[in-house]
Specification:
Structural class: alpha+beta
Number of domains: 2
Distance between the termini: 62 Å
Strand order of the largest sheet: 2-4-3-1-5-6-7
Number of strands: 7
Strand content: 5-15%
Number of helices: 12
């Protein structure tokens, strides 16, 4: 602590500018990485680097210190390889005017209403035997899949989803991605799961739903075109044969922490008071 205060006292304006410039570069890099699957991997790399550095500096371990000194440069060299797509996308976004500090799309305030709309739309699609694939983004970003589709950024309604997945429309072939209660893109291309599926009746939509949930924490809703059944995939597993009511219950259970954070405390208390006053 004393050494830290000594360093702070010796700082001049040039040193402060130098520190702020380095901090801005790190902030810019992390800001451009947001909304991609590289964020958890980047956290792991940073955590590993910090742990290795602390162990090698605090504890005098010669063999481990030698290993750390040789591994860290290799990690730095491997970062551009691991984040090749993300770095390319970041540079492309940097070259677009007004996108560096642009506002994000969507809002969590209407998330609850969007879940209801999705359940209603799936009920309609199930009755018509129209296939559908709806991906709900959570903490792990799906920006690379959003970029593969058609950008929309619209409010979610049952009629909109039913129109998108109408077999005679252009956007029906692919997935729609929902972010913070808004439909951000349609006709998105998703990776297929390579895991063995015991039920051979599960088609490419179900494999795509399982595949995108294997790589993150997204929620995938699937409507079968052949049987009209509704299923939900999460963490590489699938829950099948749901109706609209059960689908809404399952989605609200998955997003309950988000709904609690999005709902102010005063509104929760007001709802409790209103419910108590009802006859």
């Amino acid at each position: 602590m004393v050494d830290l205060l000594w360093y702070v006292q010796r700082l001049n304006s040039t040193d402060v500018l130098d520190i702020l410039l380095v901090a801005f570069i790190f902030f810019w890099f992390l800001y451009l990485m947001r909304g991609t699957r590289a964020v958890p991997l980047l956290r792991g790399v940073i955590l590993l680097t910090i742990v290795v550095t602390l162990l090698s500096s605090l504890i005098r371990l010669r063999a481990f210190g030698w290993l750390a000194r040789n591994i860290l440069p290799a990690i730095i060299v491997a970062i551009p390889v691991l984040f090749q797509q993300e770095l390319r996308r970041a540079l492309e976004r940097l070259g677009r005017a007004g996108t560096l500090f642009g506002r994000g799309t969507g809002s969590r305030a209407n998330l609850e209403q969007s879940l209801i709309a999705i359940a209603q739309a799936c009920h309609t699609l199930s009755e018509k035997r129209h296939g559908a694939l709806i991906i709900l983004e959570r903490e792990t970003g799906l920006q690379e899949f959003v970029d593969s589709g058609v950008l929309m950024d619209s409010v979610i309604t049952p009629d909109l989803l039913a129109t998108i997945f109408e077999p005679h429309t252009i956007l029906h072939d692919g997935a729609v991605i929902v972010r913070r209660g808004r439909l951000v893109a349609a006709a998105c291309v998703l990776p297929l799961s390579t895991a063995f599926l015991a039920d051979r009746q599960l088609g490419l939509r179900h494999r795509a739903a399982i595949g995108v949930t294997e790589e993150g924490d997204a929620i995938a809703v699937v409507v079968s075109e052949e049987r009209g059944s509704i299923a939900v995939a999460h963490n590489g597993r699938i829950i099948r044969n749901l109706d609209a009511k059960r689908l809404q219950t399952v989605l609200q259970a998955f997003f309950q922490p988000t709904l609690e954070r999005a709902r102010p405390r005063w509104s929760t208390r007001l709802r409790q008071i209103v419910r108590r006053s009802e006859p």
